[in-house]
Amino acid sequence: MALLHYCSCSTPSSPTPLLPFKKWTPKSIIFTVPALRPLRHRFSKNRPSPRLSATLAVESPTTSDDERGGYSPKILLEVKGLSAVISESKQPILKGVNLVIKEGEVHAIMGKNGSGKSTFAKVLVGHPDYEVTGGSVVFKGENVLDMVPEERALAGLFMSFQSPVEIPGVSNIDFLNMAYNARRKRLGQPELGPIEFYGYIYHKLDLVNMKVDFLNRNVNEGFSGGERKRNEIFQLAVLGADLAILDEIDSGLDVDALRDVAKAVNGILTPKNSVLMITHYLRLLEFIKPTYVHIMENGRIVETGDESIAKRIERAGYKTISAA
Amino acid sequence: MAASIFTPNYPLKPSSSICVNTSPNPSKFATSIIKPRPRTTRINVLTAIASLSDPFVLQIAETLEDSLSSASPPLPLQKLREASSQSLLSTPWPSRKDEPFRFTDTSFIKLSHIQPIQFPPQSTNFLGVSTDTHLPNLVIVDGFLIDSLSQFPQLPNGVFVGTLSNLNSEAIMNRVSEFMSNFEGDLFWSLNGVGTPDLVLVYVPEGCRVESPLHLRYCSVSGGASESKNLPISNPRVLVVVEKGGEIDIVEEYVGVEGEKCYWANSVTEVVIGEGGKVSHSYLQSQSMNAAHIKWTSVRQESASTYELVEVSTGGKLSRHNLHVQQVGPDTVTELSTFHLSSSDQTQDLHSKLVLDHPRGVSRQLHKCIVAHSLGQAVFDGNVKVNRYAQQTDAGQLTRSLLLEPRATVNVKPNLQIIANDVKCSHGAAISDLEENQLFYFQARGVDLATARRALIFSFGSEVIERLPHSFLRKKVENHIKELLDPAVKGFK
């Protein structure tokens, strides 16, 4: 409890609301208190501890003041104790996920097959296959779990699908036009007609190295794996997002396609928006540098650190993780 | 959501010969057609007739005959009327026990007071036929070709478009005669043969390509009030003859002119395509929602000819399309794309039959239907017959149905009958609601559920609509379907 006390006292100047730590059980924190102190001291002169920031979202006031000259990035997404089951079978998949993402950060989640990574992504955007059974998700200060999927999207959450569905009969440009107009409507701006919209997205094609005829093809119909992934990133580029959740955007891509996709993602990144990547491979992290890497295991985030974790996993596999 | 897809392929080894029929009941014409043979004695014929004649059918046939003008018709028409009356003598009104009408209830017609329409309406100004008149335009009102409303700019030499009574060429008349009463349809086919006031002929001579589409507009003007039992019947009949190497593009459009009247359009179109000829056929049916619409399309394809049909049917309380394509030579290409929308208390029915008797025929059939009303119904019976000599046939058939309301019904019976042993045939049928994961994909991009549903429902039909060969038709159909689907989409929550 010493840790909890310390943390909650350490952010008096933070403009963001404090986390209600009291609800947490010490078990949800993966490292012990004695181990923490030396870590903190080691990092305090450079940057906030990744473990601390990612898991608890608190920083020592001195470091944040030193580094950012009084400006501390806002918390974008705050997930606490999130648990979820498969709607049909009621099988539990997420068992208390905690994660905080701030503006401008790039997070990566790794983990074994079936550890719950993709489920986590889908639950965040409100996929109907899953039912949330506990915990909370706050995005830009709003309770996401109360929102229907389209509201979440309009609020600035974007998930690129691992295997995007084909929609025969609806062209890419019409689909994007609909989605883009939904955003404009929300912002109280007039909707764009097909011709104006074409003018808007035409040059965005270069971002993902796609030809113009790509716009007239039906959404994902007959697309190769690479084209589908490019299309997801293209949608992200056109629609924009405060938090882009990229679910295995690298799987099934050759090196060139991966570079294109990574270039597009990096091009979209600003100090204000953030990325949450789900991946199996270090390769993606070499193109898109993560601020934090999390390891997911059995429906929970069990380890958080920097890129070195990913390197260790790549080298030695997941057996190096001791499940909490 | 119930979805089922089965797409069996039948890789046939040269040695084996099998007959595949996927339906529980093999197709059979339950309405037995027994033609009185000339050599039988008079007594036998009478007995046969007495036992098979349906008094109700005879009564309609009689009133239809009485309504015709007394002027003596051209020979082919006379021949048609005789053959049709003959077959009516032995054809009863179809019941649900007859296989071709197992899912299609025609009692709505039977319970109405059927009246022949004797004359076309005197005033046709209200039809508002003024748009896109740069195209050859044929207006058929209540079954009568109205010359004053029709116009044929720039038709190539030798092309004849008009009624048989106005045809002066003996050669063409003889040609027409060859095709009369070659084909045995059902009761409705024969009723049309007895009741049609004249035959509209479209004749394309050898090697002639008609550039601009020929637009046939069938307008129904006479009609009973929506709750009345009065059912005026019109019997338009069109014969399209395209000689060797000729090409034409036909647009058939059926509309009710004023409000939701009750009437019965009993239409027949015959198409004969000569060697290497090509017919592109667009068929749009947007009749009154209280109308009965029975339509026959019979096509004869000679060698290396091409027939492409795109149908969009949305109107009628009862709409039935009997489509029969007969191959009479090798190397034919047949493409059938049909879209049916049942957006109210209505039945949309397609009975198609494709008979392949010669080698190397290629056929593609796509049928899609949406039932968006709890009392709506769609019926599809798609028969493809690959007979003994139709080797190296490549026949594909696919049907997809979308049921959007509880209790909405679809009866689908795709069936292949294959006797040839070296063929490539496939078929598939799927019935479903909208795909959850497609809806979610829209939502995940910020599009609300109602808009997503509308887009998906609309896109379902657009696969067929996109195949309409002219943009003005596509636009017209798209707008019409949007209108019809709007309540279905709004009603959803």
From TrEMBL, chain A:
Keywords: ATP-binding, Nucleotide-binding. Residues 44-70 are annotated as: Disordered. Pfam families: ABC_tran. Residues 77-323 form the ABC transporter domain. One of its GO terms (molecular function) is ATP binding. InterPro entries: AAA+_ATPase, ABC_transporter-like_ATP-bd, FeS-cluster_ATPase_SufC, P-loop_NTPase. The keyword Nucleotide-binding applies. This is ABC transporter I family member 6 like. The lineage of its organism: Eukaryota, Viridiplantae, Streptophyta, Embryophyta, Tracheophyta.
Automatic annotation (TrEMBL), chain B:
Residues 230-460 form the SUF system FeS cluster assembly SufBD core domain. GO terms for biological process: embryo development ending in seed dormancy; iron-sulfur cluster assembly; thylakoid membrane organization. Residues 76-215 form the SUF system FeS cluster assembly SufBD N-terminal domain. InterPro entries: Fe-S_cluster_assembly_SufBD, SUF_FeS_clus_asmbl_SufBD_core, SUF_FeS_clus_asmbl_SufBD_sf, SUF_FeS_clus_asmbl_SufD, SufBD_N. One of its GO terms (cellular component) is chloroplast. It comes from the Eukaryota. Transmembrane segments: none annotated. Signal peptide: none annotated. PANTHER family: PROTEIN ABCI7, CHLOROPLASTIC. This is Uncharacterized protein.
